[in-house]
Structure formats: C-alpha cells, structure tokens
Design goal:
The protein is an alpha+beta fold. It is built from 15 helices and 17 strands. It has four domains: 153 residues, 2-Layer Sandwich (Beta-Lactamase), CATH 3.30.450.20; 129 residues, 2-Layer Sandwich (Beta-Lactamase); 61 residues; 163 residues, Heat Shock Protein 90. A five-stranded antiparallel beta sheet has the order 2-1-5-4-3, sandwiched between helices. It has a five-stranded antiparallel beta sheet with strand order 7-6-10-9-8. The longest helix has 131 residues. Adenosine-5'-diphosphate binds next to helix 12 and helix 14. The site of adenosine-5'-diphosphate has 22 residues, from helix 12 and helix 14.
C-alpha cells in the first residue's frame, strides 16, 4: 500500500511539475513568438503602405493611362521613379502591372533579368488587386526563383471614375527573414492559409504540408504562387487546431534525419500565432524532454522527501512504541519486584516460623536426648549392677576367704601375745594387714565399677582396663582354671574414652567368655591389641568356648537376645556394650575365633594430640 501511495505521489508530483513546466514553456514560446512576429513585421509588412504611394505618382498614372502604343515612351520615367523608390527603401522590387497582368514598369529595369513585360496575371495577388481589393501574398518570383512577399494595390484613376487601371506591387524579400529563421534553434514554421510551410527550421520542412492535401490543388498553387515548385512532398501530419493556446504534438526525433522513419518520436509543445496583416501563422515547437526530465526529478525528489518524512514518522512512532514498551517493561518489573518482595516476606515469615519450629524441635530433641542419655546411664548402671549381682557369689567368696584368715590370724595373734611371742604376733599382724589391704583393693575395685557416673573422657591405658576387669574375675578364673593370655603391653595402647565404661564392656565380654567356656575342657582367654586400618585401636578378646551358632551370630546385638537360662542373662550385655563403644566413637564386632570359640573386637578411638590438649 505504501508503495502504491509513493507511486501515486510520484505520479502526482510528476504531473504537477510537468504542468508547471509546460506552462513555463508556453510563456517562453509565446515570448519567442513575439520576437519572431516583430522580426517578420519589420521585414515583410513594413512595405505594406508603399503601393499607395505609387498610386499617387503622376508618371505611373501617365503610364497606366496611356494607350498601349504610347506606353513605351512613358515607361522610362516610371521605371526611374520605381528604381529611386526602391533604392530608398532598400527593398527587392517594386513594379506596376496593367490590367492584363503584364509588367509595365519595374524598379529592376536596369538588370537583364528584369520583370518588364512578363505576365503575372496568374499570380493570386494580381487577380485580387485587379478586382479592386488590395492583396498580399507569398509567392516565388518565376524569373529569379526568389521567394517574396507581395503587396498589391489596385491603381484607380480619378479621371475615369475611379476605375482600376493597373496594379502597384511591392515585393518584400525574405532572405533576411530566412537567415534568421534558420538560425532558430527550436523548430519553427511559417504556415500560410493553405497549411503550406513557407519557412521552416529545419529547412527540410519547407513546402511541406501540415496535413496531407489533394495533389491537384497543390499543383495548382505551386504553379500560381511557387513558380512551379513541387509542394506537399512531405506531410508533417500534425494538427495545429488548438495550437493558439498551445498543443502537444509529436515530431520526428532527428529533425534533420530520415523523417519518415523517425516520425512521432518526440513530444513537443506547439504554439501558433496568426500574424496580423497577413494570412500567415507562425508556429514554434518546444522540446518537452527537459520538462519530462525535470518532472521526473521533481517526482523522485517528492518521493524521496515523502519517504524521508514517512521514515521520520515511522522512526518517531517506533521510538514512542519503544519508550512505551520500556515503560511497560519497567512497570512489569516493578510489579514483579513487588510480588517478589511480598513472596520473600511471606517466605521469610514461613521460614522464621519453620526456624522457630525447628528450634523448638531441637530443644525437644535435646530434652529427649537428655532423657535418653539419662535412661541409657540408668541402663548402663542397671547392667553393671546385674553383672555385680552375677559376680556377687564370687566376690563374697573372695572376701570371705581373707576375712576367715584374718579372724584365725587375729585369734592366733591374741594367743601368741598372751604367750609373749611378740615376734609371731607381729608376723601374724603383718599378714592381717596384707589381707585387709587385699580386701580393700577388691572393695575399691567394686566401688569404682559400681559407681554411677556420667561418661568422663580421658586417656585410658587399655592394658590397665583389661587388668581391672580381670581382677574382678580373679576368683572365678582360678576356680574355673582359665588360662589368660595377655598380649597387651602396658603404657603402649592408650585410648580416648571413659575408663569405667570400657571396664564395664570388658567385664561383660569376660563374663560371657567364661560362661561359654564352662563346658569346655580347655579354657583359654586371650587379649591382644593392634592398630586397625582406620587408625582405631582394635582390642581382640578370644575364648575357646562353644562359639556362636549361625542364628546367635545374626541376633547377637539385639536387645534381650540370650541363650542363657532365665535368671542367668538378660540379653542386654552386648547391646549396651556396643552402644557404649559407639558413644566413644568406636564399635564392637563379633566373629568366630580361629581355633573355635568366639572372638570379639573392641574398636577404640586412639589418643590424639587434640585430646592431649583437652586434658591439659
Ligand atoms: P546375656 O549374657 O545376658 O545372655 P549378652 O548380650 O551378653 O546377654 O549375650 C547374648 C548372647 O550372646 C548370649 O546369651 C550368648 O548366647 C551369646 N554370647 C555372648 N558371648 C559369647 C561367647 N563368648 N561365646 C559364645 N556365645 C556368646
């Protein structure tokens, strides 16, 4: 659509510019016509009044009045007069005809090719003039083949009742006019009343007709007016009916070239004007090509200007749209950011609620953990007491033996003192002291073991812990004839844990091992320590007992799993032991021993530099 609008605009501008151009061209052509008309007027019509002067000359009148036989004597004076007049005017020829059309006197009488005696009765101007009407015509002088414009006036005799007695003729030469005409750059024509071209630039068009004419008529005119010149060979084929206002016609492109071939090649503005006082029309042709070029330029400029304007408008619109888009985007962004803020606030509120919920949960968990720990401590304590209960018989035996010995030694000492044997008394008392010390240490160990205490971490010598546990089973080991292999060096394997609880674990393991070995012939209990690949201390406790059944191995660490008789075991020992060790950061593993029997591995965290720092 835009393209169509642009094209229409271009067409409109083209037409407008063309119209203005043609208008201007018409003005210029009109001006040119003025100049040409003035030139023709000065060349041709300035002689129009001369024939009336001839009429007044007595010599001429005398010549015309004289009968034919006396005319010869009067001819001389008349010729002289005409010659003088002609010299004065600088014109080409002045002559007088009798009513028969014969030249009686002529200004050119001195030249050999003068007109004297020639018959011009066929000339149209003569025919008109002899009838009594002044006439003017273009014609070609037959003697010299010279074109001219003839003004003819009837000469009347007042003495003979104003009868026409002859015709006075002035011929205006057209040479100067012709010269000027050919100098014309733009094509220009002089056309007579018969549409015959009398003068033309280009000269090839001379004697052409505007429109094709009948041959006979042309031949007749040619004979009468053009000294037998062949007319109308060429028809320009242009219609000048509206040319007084200016009309568009087509003319051959190369005016001097082959006319037929190039007919109608180029468009011209033809402007014609009637010459006052003559039957002539002057026509000038103005080439419309520059107008066309100018109009095309204007159209292109118009289109370009409109295009620029349109681009400008589009640019402005685009800018506005962009600005609007930016504004919308900004508003959208603002809205989105508000929404985001709102959501963030909501989320923050949710989060802080969740955080406080979490905090509450943490507190609850901590409380639960505390409760659990307390319960675990209670359980540990209960398990310890259970072990103590199981060991009670052994311990009683352990204590009753020295107690009995002390009683006997004390009685003996009294007896020895009474006898005055102070040395034996002293010896007995020393043994008593030793026994009491032994009992004290047993009770001390028991006290330490039974003490209910929260886990306290310290550097624990594994060998000492093993010794402490074994000490509690001292009596049973001896009674049941158990060989104990200790491959645990003192002061080498130091673990980071709670001494009391580690001892509880060992007591539990030793107790189970002794239970498992009860029916066996060979009873060996072994302890060895090594460093595990994880860096932990691995204390292996092996026995030569019955070992595990597959089912027992699968459920060993489950609470209340026991193969013992009711009242002998609760099935909590291994569960609690493993929990204690895991609390330390260690573990408890079970498996078969190489020579049959069971093997438990106690994994313990080793003492590290950071633990040392804690203790200091
Ligand atoms: P309890 O000793 O009260 O039965 P434990 O948890 O200490 O509970 O032991 C669970 C079970 O594991 C025992 O009943 C026993 O069957 C088995 N067990 C423990 N230690 C050994 C061992 N050294 N040799 C063979 N079986 C064992």
């Amino acid at each position: 659509m835009l393209l169509a609008v642009l094209l229409l605009l271009g067409l409109f501008v083209y037409r407008l510019s063309e119209q203005f151009g043609i208008e201007r061209m018409r003005d210029a052509a009109s001006h040119q016509l003025d100049i040409l008309a003035a030139a023709i007027d000065s060349e041709v019509t300035r002689h129009a009044s001369i024939p009336s002067a001839i009429e007044l000359n007595p010599d001429i009148l005398a010549l015309l009045r004289a009968p034919a036989d006396q005319q010869g004597s009067r001819q001389g004076a008349a010729n002289h007069f005409l010659q003088k007049l002609n010299d004065h005017l600088g014109g080409p020829a002045i002559f007088v005809l009798d009513t028969g059309g014969r030249v009686l006197a002529s200004s050119d009488w001195i030249f050999s090719d003068n007109l004297l005696g020639s018959d011009l009765s066929y000339m149209p101007f003569f025919r008109d003039a002899v009838q009594g009407t002044p006439a003017r015509h273009y014609a070609i002088d037959p003697a010299r083949q010279e074109p001219g414009y003839y003004f003819a006036l009837p000469v009347r005799d007042e003495k003979q009742d104003w009868r026409v007695i002859g015709v006075a003729v002035v011929k205006s030469g057209l040479r100067e006019l012709e010269r000027r005409w050919l100098a014309q750059e733009a094509p220009a024509l002089i056309v007579d009343s018969n549409d015959l071209v009398l003068l033309a630039s280009p000269p090839e068009w001379r004697y052409a007709t505007l429109r094709p004419k009948e041959r006979t008529m042309l031949d007749q005119i040619g004979r009468q007016q053009f000294a037998g010149q062949r007319l109308g060979e060429l028809s320009l084929d242009i219609d000048l009916s509206g040319a007084s206002e200016g009309t568009l016609v087509r003319l051959p492109k190369h005016l001097r070239g082959d006319l037929q071939a190039l007919r109608g090649e180029r468009q011209y503005l033809a402007l014609a004007r009637h010459l006052p006082g003559t039957a002539w029309r002057i026509v000038v042709f103005s080439d419309l090509r520059p107008v066309g070029v100018q109009a095309a330029t204007h159209a292109a400029l118009g289109i370009a200007a409109f295009g620029c304007m349109l681009l400008g408008v589009l640019y402005a619109r685009q800018r506005r749209r962009l600005a609007r888009g930016r504004e919308e985007a900004r508003a959208l962004l603002e809205r989105a950011s508000h929404e985001l803020e709102r959501k963030v606030e909501e989320r923050t509120a949710d989060l802080s609620e969740a955080v406080s919920g979490l905090q509450r949960e943490v507190v609850e968990r901590q409380r639960a953990e505390q409760t659990l720990r307390a319960a675990q401590d209670e359980l540990v304590q209960a398990a310890k007491l259970a072990v103590l209960g199981q060991m009670a018989t052994g311990i009683t035996h352990e204590l009753s033996q020295p107690l009995g010995a002390i009683r006997a030694l004390a009685a003996n000492a009294v007896e020895f003192m009474r006898r005055g044997d102070m040395a034996t008394t002293e010896k007995n008392m020393a043994i008593v002291e030793q026994l009491i010390e032994q009992m004290g240490s047993i009770i001390g160990q028991l006290k330490t073991f039974a003490r209910k205490s929260p886990a306290v971490y310290s550097a624990v010598d594994v060998a000492q812990a093993v010794e402490g546990a074994l000490f509690l089973f001292d009596v049973r080991l001896k009674r049941e004839n158990v060989t104990v292999d200790r491959h645990v060096e003192h002061g080498v394997w130091i673990a980071w844990c709670d001494r009391n609880r580690l001892q509880q674990v060992l007591v539990n393991l030793i107790g189970n091992a002794l239970d498992a070995m009860q029916g066996e012939a060979v009873r060996r209990l072994g302890f060895s320590v090594d460093k595990a690949s994880s860096g932990q201390l691995a204390l292996a406790v092996t026995d030569s007992g019955c070992g595990f059944t597959e089912e027992a191995l699968a459920h060993l660490f489950e609470p209340f799993f026991t193969t013992k008789q009711p009242g002998e075991g609760l099935g909590l020992g291994l569960t609690i032991s493993r929990d204690i060790l895991r609390d330390f950061g260690g573990d408890l593993l079970a498996g078969p021993a190489p020579g049959g029997g069971a093997r438990f591995v106690v994994l313990l965290p080793p003492l590290l530099a950071e633990h040392r720092k804690q203790t200091t």
